Amino acid sequence: MPFPAGGPTDVVARLVAQSLTGKLGGNVIVENRAGAGGRIGAQVVASAAADGYTLLLGGTNVNAITGALYQNIGFDPIKSFAPVAAIYADSLALAISPGVPADSCEQLVPLRQG
Description:
- By secondary structure, the protein is an all-alpha fold.
- 39% of the residues lie in helices and 0% in strands.
- The longest helix is centred in the N-terminal third of the chain and has 17 residues, at 8-24.
């Protein structure tokens, strides 16, 4: 879990772990590795053995926004993970200053890269 205990994503992780524990016949443990907007926990999972025993409850922030905002994060937000299941959906809003010369995401991205 790349976020602190007690938040909404942590609650979802614990509900999923509880359900998986019953279905798999073994304990599923939620380990919180919070910090850096989810990058610390994601790095731990990206570096773990690809044996199916370490899972990341990722999402838009870790798997989409992080790669667009930061360079050299120590993992590829897309290639370092294999999707297993969609658990929940969230929504985001993007607001920018009226002084930014962009009216869409397509116009905004080149400004960040340029």
